[in-house]
Design goal:
mainly alpha; Nonspecific Lipid-transfer Protein, Chain A; 3 domains; four-stranded mixed sheet; 16 helices; 4 strands; elongated
Amino acid sequence: MSTTGPEGTATTEKARAGERDDSSGTSLPEMIKASHDAATHLVGLTFTEAATSGDPRRALRAADTAVAVISAHMYAVQTSVYPMARRRLPDSRPRIAELCAQGRETASVLRGISQYIQGDVHRPDESMGRLRERLAELEEQHIAAEEALVADLDKALSPDDRRRMATAFRRSMRRAPTRPHPHLPRTAVVGSLVLRLAGSWDHILDTMDARIAADGPVRAPAPAGLWGWYLLGRPVPPPVAPPPVAPPLSGRPPALPRRRGRGRAGPEASGGRVGSQPGRCEGFSIACMGRARAQRVALADLLDEVGPAQATLCAGWTAHDLVAHLVTRDRVPYALPGFVIKSLHGVTAMAERATMRGDTFPDLVRIFRDGPPWWHPTRFGLVDDAANLVEFFVHHEDVRRARPGWSGSQLDDGMQRALWRSFQMFGRAAYRRSAVGVVAERADGPGRVVLRRGAGEVTLVGNPAELLLFAFGRRDHAVVDVHGDNGVVAAFTGGEASR
């Protein structure tokens, strides 16, 4: 995760002061104070960014950088400063015990902040603002006590011991964990080993996340390739047009490049479009759009129209939640299993919250409209229709029918036939646990399918689009007639409502 800007970068660089050159001559009290100043500034930055910045991500990035700096500092003092203080200052044990207790409480608060940043479903009940306030209070108490301890220790050390102490602190900062680990053991041997391994793992995660931490120089982000853009959940950037070629001095126009294995090149070889192929669909043009892609564009248009606060038929979801779900489905591979495996749904929900925090609502709608990367399987029309047609149609109606004055869908015959084919498959899955038999009939033409056999039988009559919405649980917003004996209909509607 990147830092908040020039102030955050400068503060992180300040936290690293004295780490790169063991012969810098900086004393231990000066290094401790610089680390404290950096932590204090970053904690304060989380308040100012939350209050003044129009982008909520800036406060989260400042908080994430503060978590990294404070976590590294606590490890460094606990492994290098406190052991020396116990040996050289016999009366310091109660003070160190109190500092360690404050450190554990600080680690718990930092853990809660990290859970908010990552969108963890198991985050604490306290709000992010309250966690920031607790962190500021703990830091103020901890800094005063720790600087007094370090000043007393510095007086008790010889010059050689001071240099060794400063070197040990620098080394600890370089390999320190950058994430809070409040539940790891704190014993002298096992705790040091476990925290060292946790620090190595944190550095791997920092590299994967391009996160600004207190253990290395700030690097400019490397350009992502196709696979990188897919994993990042962002659309592939458009190719940069090559610079124009200057005409030769002879005055003759330059020859157009010829493609290998082809007999012609230039605009006339591709129907008037340079670089395209005859009959090939470019992007999401209306002329070559499949049904799922048409639904994608219609849903994106509707989301742009209603705005992020619009309620939907998905319980508890606004339009902002819905578009974050759709973008996650398109572009976050590790979230896909959670859509079908209930035990993994927490991972998917966390990814959706991270997607929602990562971009503004208009940006999410634009990303959804652009669709998945060009090499994604759903870029192929048949795969796209099979995987996304029902999803996009149902969610389009979730937004449209959540507004007052809605009416049934007016779809062409081809779309109704496609939804009827999908309904026959999804309907059997939707009513497999029904207490009675279920039969569906089309109201707009011939078509009848037995979805479940049973002692009693109800008949659902409606257009394929309405039957599909009814099967997906939108019963109060679907134009479907239910026919059958009163007892059978009551058993059907009561059983469906209880599921």
